[in-house]
Design goal:
By secondary structure, the chain is mainly β. It has one helix and 22 strands.
């Protein structure tokens, strides 16, 4: 009897456990991050797990502090859809966040929240990837030695900011908007603050097509703000309102660049 009891206990532990480094899939169409039953294996992701929000359409809602994962992927494969809503609380990724890897991904962040990552935040990674990040409030920043951010890596990405703060990434790292030859990125600043007051560069139209459009809010870049940096890059900077300042503006270093000032509101 004692032997059988230990066998039952061991089976229960194995069933409830998620191994380090394992990918954990969000299994319901719409539900809470913090509910174990919503995840494959019945366990909420830990700091060593990849949290996968994908398939035919999944929406996960973070409403409590303390959500963690190793990697976050929303919209993994072509034709797949995933969305993350950070409504209250916090999310910390030990490595990366990928919004629209090869599918369609969305991340929306609201007031009073914090989202941090250690290596990469990519919006629209693969050629078929389509990502959108909406920063409506709260705080978004890198928290590691290699933190950088790309909007439109190989695919299409949009970062739409209406509030909150995009803080420092890491020393000598970049915010890329339109990173590679196939990348198409757009950053719209319609409120809130972009505060790179110490260490982070900006490259709009790095090797791909990139646009930075400011209609409200404040952007402060202590280092270089590049528009059209590398060969083949196509960068556009458009100031409709708000304030954008940088230690140095570089336009068309090795690529095409355009600058436009307009009073017309951004749609």
């Amino acid at each position: 009897m004692k032997r059988d009891a230990w066998g039952v206990l061991f089976a229960c532990v194995v069933t409830a456990a998620v191994c380090s480094g394992q990918t954990v899939y969000f299994e319901v169409t719409d539900g809470l991050w913090e509910a174990p039953a919503n995840w494959g294996g019945g366990v909420v992701p830990g700091a060593a797990n990849t949290a996968m929000i994908t398939f035919e359409g999944r929406t996960v809602r973070i409403t409590q502090p303390g959500a963690v994962c190793g990697n976050l992927v929303a919209g993994y494969g072509s034709g797949e859809i995933g969305a993350v809503y950070l409504t209250t609380g916090t999310l910390a990724s030990a490595t990366s966040q990928n919004i629209g890897r090869d599918g369609r991904g969305t991340f929306i962040q609201w007031d009073g929240t914090t989202n941090t990552y250690s290596s990469f935040l990519t919006v629209g990674e693969g050629v078929t990837g389509n990502g959108r990040y909406e920063l409506r409030g709260g705080y978004l920043a890198g928290n590691g030695l290699a933190a950088e951010m790309t909007v439109g890596y190989n695919g299409t990405g949009v970062f739409y900011q209406t509030g909150g703060v995009l803080g420092e990434l890491y020393k000598d790292k970049y915010l890329y908007v339109g990173r590679t030859a196939t990348g198409n990125g757009t950053y719209v600043l319609d409120g809130g603050e972009l505060l790179f007051t110490n260490a982070t560069y900006v490259s709009v139209g790095h090797n791909g097509k990139g646009s930075f459009i400011a209609s409200n809010g404040v952007a402060k870049v202590a280092k270089i703000f590049n528009v059209g940096k590398e060969a083949g890059g196509r960068g556009m900077f458009r100031l409709c309102g708000g304030s954008v300042s940088a230690g140095q503006f570089t336009m068309g270093e090795k690529a095409a660049a355009g600058v436009r000032r307009s009073s017309r509101a951004v749609p």
